[in-house]
Design brief:
There is one protein chain. The chain is of the alpha/beta class. The chain has eleven helices and 17 strands. Pfam families: PHP_C.
């Protein structure tokens, strides 16, 4: 059976529902479900998106409207197709139980709208506000896993190394087995401040597929990180099989920001964000409290130097991050090539130089190989890249 390769970003928030009510408080107003699907299909060229606020009843109502009136359709193998993009229904949930020393975020995905509705019905009595994103769940992490599996879903810990609201990031949890059933985890989302080389220093992660997703809070950030997946078609069943490497399916490449660019890569002063000092006191303000960076946290946890067979991890940034590539230039590129994925992966040097300067064309080609230099970030501030 022939397999094709598809691009997927499986962590996208919704800013507003169809009634203009907030879902993700920090999400952009334009970040509606319909706009996400249009942006992914027409501009980004993303074949599969995971919208992780699909537990919200108003979001489910919009899905039903898209199916009834705007050509969306439920797939027999799971997921909802809209134009060229498949929607995977997901929910981001905050766990903070007796085994968890700090709140952690997890992603739960389901094959159909009916399964997601059943999950919402179960969840609404265990959550203060079912209408908002990433809300605290009152129950154990393992009970949540059991429910997800009962409903034929996928369970993935989210951005596992970020200092806040992640599995390892709080500084207390040393093993996922302290909080979760390792046999009921379908993959591990790395987050913007870590890549596969860093994460594989922790041996208990070796058997899991690594995901790289955008955690988008605006339309522009869709595809900030993504993966390429070998599947027969973009559907929930095929995604499940790819996560577990069944019959040749699997993740063939991860595309993510250089960890140096992540806003939590380095440890910094919690007050003024200056780098950590050797005597544990900030030289600028005298503060002794720090935001521990992902690099330092992984160094605390690492127990392995073994090389693990992984797909390539390509350090890449969204096109909008490139210096001198403004909105007008981006639009010229889109007019010429169709989508951002076409620009990033398919356009030749000759074709690019017919639209933009040789310097910018060279930067796009270097980024395609993961070779653009990065200036580190930390403490809530993103790093940056520079053109050679």
């Amino acid at each position: 059976m022939a397999l094709n390769r598809f691009f997927a970003d499986l962590h996208i928030h919704i800013g507003r529902d169809m009634y203009n009510q907030p879902v993700k408080i920090t999400g952009a107003r334009t970040l509606t479900l319909s706009n996400i699907l249009v942006e992914a299909s027409r501009n980004k060229g993303i074949d599969m998106v995971g919208v992780i606020d699909s537990h919200v009843p108003a979001v489910q109502a919009e899905i039903e409207e898209l199916i009834a009136d705007f050509g969306a359709k439920e797939l027999t193998q799971g997921g909802i197709q809209y134009e060229k993009t498949t929607l995977i229904l997901g929910s981001e949930i905050e766990v903070y139980d007796q085994y968890c020393q700090g709140p952690i975020h997890v992603l739960c995905f389901f094959p159909s709208l009916s399964k997601m509705k059943q999950f919402t019905h179960w969840l609404q009595d265990k959550m203060t506000n079912i209408h908002l994103s990433s809300q605290r769940y009152y129950g154990s992490g393992k009970d949540l896993q059991y429910k997800v599996k009962e409903l034929e879903g996928l369970f993935i810990p989210a951005h596992v190394f970020t200092p806040f609201k992640s599995l390892y990031g709080k500084g207390v949890t040393r093993s996922l087995q302290e909080v979760l059933d390792p046999d009921l985890i379908d993959g591990i989302e790395l987050g913007l401040s870590a890549d596969t080389m860093m994460a594989d220093q922790i041996s208990e992660l070796h058997n899991y597929t690594f995901l790289t997703n955008s955690d988008a809070h605006s339309l522009a950030k869709i595809g900030r990180e993504y993966q390429q997946i070998a599947m027969e078609n973009p559907s929930f069943r095929e995604l499940n099989w790819a996560l577990h490497r069944i019959d040749g399916r699997g993740f063939t490449a991860n595309f993510g920001m250089n960890p140096l660019l992540g806003k939590y890569h380095n440890t910094v002063c919690s007050e003024c964000l200056n780098p950590a000092q050797a005597d544990n006191r900030c030289s600028s303000c005298g503060n002794r409290k720090w935001i521990k960076g992902v690099k330092e946290r992984i160094n605390e946890l690492k127990d392995n130097n073994k090389q693990v067979a992984r797909p390539p991890y390509v350090h890449q940034v969204p096109l909008e991050y490139l210096p001198t590539l403004g909105p007008k230039t981006l639009q010229r590129l889109l007019d010429a090539f169709g989508t951002e994925m076409d620009i990033l992966h398919r356009a030749t040097r000759k074709e690019l130089e017919q639209v933009v300067s040789k310097k910018l064309a060279n930067a796009i080609l270097l980024m395609r190989k993961g070779k653009l230099p990065a200036v580190p970030g930390g403490g809530g501030k993103y790093g940056r890249i520079s053109l050679p």
